[in-house]
Amino acid sequence: MSEKMYPGQDAVVAKGWLGAHRWLLLRRLSQLVILFFFLAGPFWDVWIVKGSLTSSLTLGVLPLSDPFVVLQSFFAGHVIAGTALIGAAIVFAFYALIGGRVYCSFVCPMNVVTDTSSWLARKFDLPKGWQPSKDARLWALGSVMIMALITGVMAWEMLNPVTMLHRGLVYGMGYVWTIALAIFIFDIVVSRRGWCGHLCPMGAFYGLLGKASVLRVSAAKRHDCNDCMDCFDVCPEPHVITPALRGAQTNTGPLILSGDCTNCGRCMDVCAKDVFSFSTRFNNVILKNDDHNNTIDSSTQHAA
Amino acid sequence: MTGSPWAKSKTQTRRRFLGNAARAAGGACVFGMVIGLFARQAQSLPAQVLRPPGVANENDFLAACVRCGLCVRDCPYPTLSLADVGGDIPVGTPYFIARKYPCEMCDDVPCVKACPTGALDPKLTNIDDARMGLAVLIDNETCLNMQGLRCDVCHRVCPLLNEAITLERQHNPRTGAHAIFIPTVHSDKCTGCGKCERSCVLEKAAIRVLPRNLAKGRIGEHYRLGWVEKANKGESLVPPLVDMPDRLPEGVTISPRGPKP
Lengths: 304, 261
Fold this sequence. Notes:
Low-confidence stretches of chain A: 294-304
Order of helices and strands of chain B: HEHHEEHEHEEHEHHEE
Number of strands of chain B: 9
Helix content of chain A: 40-55%
Strand content of chain B: 5-15%
Mean pLDDT of chain B: 90
Distance between the termini of chain B: 120 Å
Structural class of chain B: alpha+beta
Low-confidence stretches of chain B: none
Shape of chain B: elongated
Number of helices of chain B: 8
Largest sheet of chain A: 3 strands, antiparallel
Strand order of the largest sheet of chain B: 1-3-2
Oligomer: heterodimer
Strand order of the largest sheet of chain A: 1-2-3
Radius of gyration of chain A: 20 Å
Structural class of chain A: mainly alpha
Largest interface: A-B, 58 and 45 residues
Helix content of chain B: 25-40%
């Protein structure tokens, strides 16, 4: 193995810079376009999307609401009397289909903050710091709902940095930047990927929501894997990769089936061998001699 | 625990599992307590902060409002805004401050129509039924009308002119010859829009809109106002006075003008 400066270097050589940053750019574009939709109204009086990520109205007809927030409202004892229920159902169905945590990687504004922080942490080779258990966010999610039940108000929404940040971007920052900065510092100094990857109850909710989603990342060409480990380096949830990429030994299919996977596609970007691709959950075929250590003519295996 | 290494490792695994579970549960408890206490603290609104129309109870509102800001967007005036982080108002919730910009009481109530959750009660279709607060003439010592002058501005700007605020005439003891027109708010009509507070000509308003629970007193449940009960029944609730025979000196009779010799 040659000395590498950064993960994805081989991919840049193999596919060019654009090819090695395709999904990253697409995600940033998606985040920007969504923010643009919200801001076109207040800035240029073109009302594409009104409201914020918790509840919005698109082109005056399509209601969209955050099922996580609506669920909190339910636990706080409120019966939704309005379009928010329809909006939440639409959003729920959408993410249930394409992967719950697509919200995290393609929509959530906090993603830019924590991606930047983990990029810097990688660049300066900072210690990973505190790594809470992978169940921590589920416990946090439970706490959020129980506290809504006990207090009778949406307690978490008084602190939720995610909804706060988006509201700040759309309605005026005020002091919201301090929240983003706090998460940034936490992620870079205290705990790498600590917020999005371990603690955020919203991410936990969307993870559960997307557990059975149709759209999945597949390590389809895992037999081509050269163990460069770049995908593990850049993946915000690296534990999801192993069962799929190394599954040939344990007779597991190449699909990444964990709800934690955000479908961000960064693994596809940094892989010089194009091991990963988007697939559907119905396409979890284990090929013969699929072990990534085997060197077989790959043309015979692409049929699947 | 003696025996095979297998048994030992099993114990260790179990011990580690229990330790991890306890740590996670403890963390969740701490996290829950923090957000619970924070939510409790954030539930006390400053008195000058008013909610948009259609909010009956602050706690119910905080259970229902998803803080999307659609009411703010559909408000045609600069009245509503969303609360910033770190202030006294629960973050992201819509509010207005009457002295800065009052509710203009739109006939079509666009803010309530915009609300996707029913946090602003969709049953509120007539803005005159809104109860955002209650105007209170809070400072008699500075109110110009109370000094016997004819300011009357709060009365004249009231959208429910002569209903929510009336001018009650009273003798002016200072001059002995003039009247004082007291601006008097009627809680059964006042919507709490805040136009009176906004337009009070004083440097600091003498009439202010307060949350209704702060502004309203309540008579004791056992209290009965005799004249009200009498009016309700149509007659006195106690038997009329018994006319006892008058005992008078010989030869004296009673006339309406008093005793006659």
